[in-house]
Design a protein that fits this description.
Elements: H1 2-8, H2 12-43, H3 51-96, H4 108-150, H5 152-169, H6 173-199, H7 201-208, H8 210-263, H9 268-309, E1 327-335, E2 341-345, E3 351-353, E4 361-368, E5 373-377, H10 384-391, E6 399-405, E7 411-413, E8 422-425, E9 434-435, H11 436-441, H12 449-458, E10 474-475, H13 484-496, E11 502-506, H14 514-528, E12 533-537, H15 541-546, E13 549-552
């Protein structure tokens, strides 16, 4: 609840506008009840007030109601989308900036589901449902006071009927909350399943089989349907109680008026007012009852979003760009992943748990001197990727130190703040959907066309200029439409556009033929040797031939 209040604070001003419009609408609504009563009393002879004056008053009240209704809907939609966008951006920014520990706490599909569905539910709660509660309470109080002036006993009867109906319909709060949490988790599981298999469609077609994957989706959807049906059943019972309360209230108001007319204690105008006021008393009570399941659903979303917010942020001493080419020094570094996950990778490049408590690095020391070109080699799982992550400040050593330094004596520990000094080309296809130009400008939004063409030339990706659309050629998700080797070279060109003093290339030529690889390496060597510190992770001999140093890692280093 404290977190919900904190998230609501930036929206309170806009919510106040929503409540104001709602209050004006309530006043107009009660004014309409009053004018209807007056008009009926005038035409039945109970009152001798001028008829047409009251007709014009009724028309004015109706116009106010129309304006309030339109304004309320417009402002509510505006408030929701503004809040939703800001909230999604804040949570997304926090997730991207959270500390990376080698094993992600949440799968990408689950995160997307939370950032879309749960943010939408929470925005609706803050912007619509909470103001509605205030407006509903105000309507209940105002309508009750109005009815109290005419028939106090009828008011208490209506309230009693609706309270019984609400209490009867809400006997399953705990079960509704459990079911809502299960449904939200089921939504996330389905989204994750669809997303992963669409991303790995070739693997599905060649290994798993479409039938198996669709069958798994069917099982997940059946479970979701089962939980949804259970919740629908509980809600059906609840709606039955509410309908009983409404019908009982209207029957009570109608019969009260009928017998009052017979006894001469109720006028036709009062009868008209009774039938309108019964809804204005009952509806707020019913609405407050309906808000409870919505509130339960929203609290589940709040909890799921706060799990993302609880991800610890990266630690940083502040962004620092070296004025001269920096080097990287490891001094007696030990490193073990939490929970024992190893240095091996899954398809996304994230560490996966494979060993229990064995250290990945032990007493490792090395100086990647400023302006040097070092090849990092060794079998899978010995710590090459871990070294890269330590350089980038994604991980911090268990003991020892990793820091960047330059020949002028400047020194900074490797963390999120020093990452600005790096250019990094990860393993695999790292292009995003969009044009080649858009991909290149991700690294440097201000890059000119000449700079992009030069980066493509150095990375042996000048084939791009021979494509029919050149830089405006569209590539799909993960570079679909280009070969793996073409995508790798464009990824290298993108990295070259990023202004930095250190370049890390992680198996960046693994999909290239020998001639193209040697041309790319020769270009990098001739253009950046001495001006950038280059670390090349590779098992291939071409990189070793131009390297100043080759570091071969083994088990236990």
């Amino acid at each position: 609840m404290k977190g919900l209040w904190r998230l609501s604070k930036p929206v309170l001003g806009r919510d106040a506008v929503t409540v104001f419009i709602g209050i004006v609408r309530i006043i107009a609504s009660l004014g309409f009840v009053w004018i209807c009563k007056r008009l009926v009393d005038i035409v039945t002879g109970v009152s001798d007030a001028p008829l047409m004056d009251h007709v014009w008053i009724m028309i004015g009240i109706m116009l106010v109601q129309i304006i309030c209704g339109l304004s309320y809907n417009y402002w509510d939609a505006y408030n929701v989308v503004k809040t939703q966008n800001q909230m999604r951006e804040d949570f997304f920014s926090h997730v991207l900036g959270s500390r990376w520990n080698g094993l992600e706490a949440f799968r990408s599909g689950d995160m997307i589901n939370r950032l879309e569905e749960d943010v939408s539910v929470l925005s609706d709660l803050i912007c619509t449902r909470l103001p509605d509660v205030v407006i509903t309470v105000a309507q209940l109080v105002a309508a009750s006071i109005f009815l109290l002036t005419m028939a106090p006993s009828l008011l208490w009867l209506l309230v009693l009927l609706m309270v019984v109906a609400v209490v009867g319909s809400k006997m399953y709060f705990g079960k509704l909350r459990v079911l809502t949490a299960q449904i939200r988790a089921g939504d996330s599981e389905i989204q994750q399943h669809i997303q992963e298999n669409l991303q790995n469609r070739i693997l599905v077609l060649t290994l798993f089989g479409v039938g198996n994957i669709v069958s798994r989706l069917s099982d997940l959807q059946d479970l979701l349907k089962k939980n949804t049906v259970k919740r629908l059943n509980y809600n059906a019972v609840a709606r039955g109680f509410m309908s009983l309360g409404f019908m009982g209230g209207y029957a009570a108001a109608f019969l009260w008026g009928i017998f009052g007319i017979k006894d001469g204690t109720v006028t036709y105008g009062m009868m008209t007012a009774f039938l309108q006021l019964v809804g204005q008393v009952q509806r707020p009570i019913a609405e407050l009852g309906r808000q409870i399941p919505a509130f339960i659903k929203a609290l589940t979303s709040v909890e799921r979003l706060f799990e993302l917010e609880d991800l610890p942020p990266e630690t940083s001493s502040g962004e620092f760009m070296f004025s001269k080419t920096p080097g990287i020094r490891f001094e007696n570094v030990d490193f073990s992943y939490a929970h024992g996950e190893s240095d091996s990778k899954d398809n996304s490049g994230h560490g996966r748990s494979e060993r229990s408590s064995q250290a990945v690095l032990e007493h490792f020391s090395h100086d990647f001197a400023p302006g040097s070109l070092t090849v990092l080699a060794g079998p899978t799982g010995v710590g090459k990727s871990t070294l890269t992550r330590l350089m980038l400040g994604l991980l911090q050593p268990t003991s020892g130190s990793v820091y960047l330094y330059s020949e002028d004596g400047t020194r900074r520990p490797s963390d999120a703040g020093t990452r600005v000094n790096f250019t990094y080309v990860p393993q695999g296809n790292s292009l995003l959907s969009g044009t080649i130009r858009e991909n290149l400008r991700l690294a440097n939004p201000k890059a000119t066309e000449a700079e992009m063409i030069e980066a493509l030339r150095i990375s042996a990706a000048d084939f791009v200029m021979d494509l029919p659309l050149g830089l405006d050629t569209v590539c799909g998700e993960s570079g679909t439409g280009l070969s793996e080797g073409q995508s790798q070279r464009i990824a290298v060109a993108r990295a070259l556009l990023h202004p930095s003093g250190i370049m890390i290339l992680d198996e960046a030529t693994s999909a290239l033929d020998v001639d193209t690889e040697e041309r790319l390496l020769a270009n990098i060597h001739s253009n950046y040797k001495g001006t950038k510190t280059i670390v090349f992770i590779s098992h291939r001999p071409a990189a070793s031939r131009i390297a100043d140093d080759v570091v071969v890692l083994h088990d236990n280093n």
